[in-house]
Amino acid sequence: MIKTELPDFQLRQATIEDCPLILELINELAEYEKLAHEVTATVAILEESLFGERSGAEAVIAEFHHKPVGYALWFYNFSTFTGRPGIYLEDIYVRPTMRGRGFGKCLLAYLAKLAVDRNYTRVEWSVLDWNEPSIRFYRAIGAIPMDEWTVQRLHGEALTSFAMQFRQES
Is 120 part of the annotated catalytic residue set? Predict the structure, then answer.
């Protein structure tokens, strides 16, 4: 348990037993972002991805009065320019009824501290263009937009098709 200065609010490292809860929170976030149709994760997939032999991400659960109210899920990236890793925050979510209490800010500050403690150089994330409340919050804590960068993605059929263009010498 990671106690915070906020009364009755604590963080804890997610465990494999939390995968149903994490999926529930992912679905809530997807609904908020109007992207529920894109969620294909299952409890089994999360168990493998977060806690399997080749796990590539971590998560913390945010609790208020010992009840889950949000989460953060991240993985590690790497900056060749600094020669050090960083944290890529995939999801940060606080249930709507719990917003405005400092829980999201506490979650993000925890990740910043984790990055500093591990000698990482950055914490990065994406935000939807229309999400003005989040953008205002991120600016208020000192986050800067990467205006000259645009996220690119290969997925689905395009990923599979392009992967088939790699040929190894026999």
Answer: no
10 Å CB burial of residue 127 (0-12, 13-18, 19+) is middle
What digits encode the pLDDT tens for the residues 43-70? 999 999 999 999 989 999 999 999 999 9
The CA-atom distances, in angstroms, between 7 and each of 66, 70, 101, 115 are 11, 16, 10, 24
Report the 3 state secondary structure along the chain. CEECCCCCEEEEECCHHHHHHHHHHHHHHHHHCCCHHHCCCCHHHHHHHHHCCCCCCEEEEEEECCEEEEEEEEEEEEECCCCEEEEEEEEEEECHHHCCCCHHHHHHHHHHHHHHHCCCCCEEECCCCCCHHHHHHHHHCCCCCCCCCCCCCCCHHHHHHHHCCCCCCC
In contact, 11 and 107? CB cutoff 8 Å: yes
Q: What is the Rg, in whole angstroms, of the alpha carbon atoms belonging to the chain?
A: 17
Please tell me which residue in 76, 88, 110, 138 is annotated as part of the active site: 138
Tokens of residue 139, six digits = 């600016």
pTM score of the predicted model: 0.92
Phi and psi at 27, nearest 5°, equal -65, -40
According to the model, what pLDDT value does residue 169 have? Answer: 86
